[in-house]
Write a structure and sequence with these properties.
This protein has about 110 residues and is mainly beta. It has 1 helix and 8 strands. The mean pLDDT is about 95.
Length: about 110
């Protein structure tokens, strides 16, 4: 089995993004729903055993920036940020998200 973690950083404020709702999918099945803590992480995600395969994380980034007081376009340019990634057998993947209202980036972390 493999494991997964994520960390969300608000690149506007330069701080961890606390309170971001997100979901983990495999195909159309929701495997996990969570909210980031004060450090922009969700430790419970790491406890979900995952098999080799393709997964999708969806982050509710528009709601986060609205709650933080940012005026967003209607509809927001980025509302839900999806990240599709593959996971090998017996590995750990860390999928960070660096986000702003009009752009984001990700990479495979450690």
């Amino acid at each position: 089995m493999s494991s997964l973690s994520t960390h969300i950083l608000d690149t506007v404020s330069g701080r961890p993004a606390a309170g971001v709702s997100f979901r983990l999918f495999q195909e159309d099945a929701v495997l996990f729903e969570g909210v980031t803590d004060h450090d922009g992480r969700c430790p419970a995600l790491r406890e979900i055993p995952l098999e080799r395969g393709t997964y999708r994380l969806e982050f509710e980034i528009g709601a986060y920036f609205r709650a933080a007081g940012h005026v967003l376009s209607d509809p927001p340019f980025l509302d839900v940020v999806p990240i599709v990634f593959g996971l090998g057998e017996g590995t750990h993947a860390h999928v960070p998200l660096l986000a702003a209202p009009y752009g984001y980036s990700t990479y495979r972390g450690s």
